[in-house]
Specification:
With about 70 residues, the chain is mostly helical. It is built from 2 helices and no strands.
Length: about 70
């Protein structure tokens, strides 16, 4: 994350406990953002896929399974 003068806040007017609270909150937000980025990555199941050779009428089988209900 690039730092610039526009992104910095002057917290010197706050007492030390409140500065620590602000720092902890910013760290929490950064950790949550990093976690969100990790969850955006979707798993690809292509390594688990295989080929199925179907010997039969797929529509007839689907209808027979549906008719069982």
């Amino acid at each position: 994350m690039p730092r610039s003068a526009a992104n910095l806040l002057d917290l010197s007017q706050l007492p030390a406990p409140q500065r620590r609270e602000v720092r902890d909150f910013v760290q929490f937000l950064l950790a949550r953002q990093a976690e969100t980025r990790k969850s955006d990555v979707t798993y690809r199941f292509s390594d688990l896929c295989g080929i199925m050779n179907w010997k039969g009428d797929a529509v007839a089988t689907q209808r027979s399974l549906r008719d069982e209900w």
